[in-house]
Amino acid sequence: QVILIESGGGSVQAGGSLSLSCAFSGDRRDCMAWFRQAPAKEREAVASITRFFTMEYSGGAKGRFTISRDDAKHILYLQMSNLKPEDSAMYYCAATKYNSDCVFPLSLSDFTDWGQGTQVTVSA
Questions:
Q1: Which of 59, 124, 122 shows the shortest CA–CA distance to 91?
Q2: If you average pLDDT over every residue of the chain, what do you get?
Q3: Alpha-carbon torsion 57, 59, 61, 63, what sign?
Q4: Which of these, 66, 83, 95, 98, is most buried using a 10 Å CB contact count?
């Protein structure tokens, strides 16, 4: 079992930046990812990172978001810049045992562990 706790969400104006963190503990998980879900929309993948630091991004995140992990500190990060109103959503970190599950397109059902989410709101 893995416990994931997100933090760092908030409100920002368009063009601004936010940094999300996800503290994790418990069993080792090789693949970790960020997902987001806006009201009335399906949960979608944002970025993933393997134990070997291979990173992948959704088309909308590429070039603006950076995922990273510090396994010594047990923290997963998502640095977001040039934020847009359409980035507004609840952001979740998730984890799974297998590096192969980190390849886009990600499948929600592959991820066994989820945090409670942190809200990001971007105003125009």
A1: 122
A2: 96
A3: positive
A4: 95
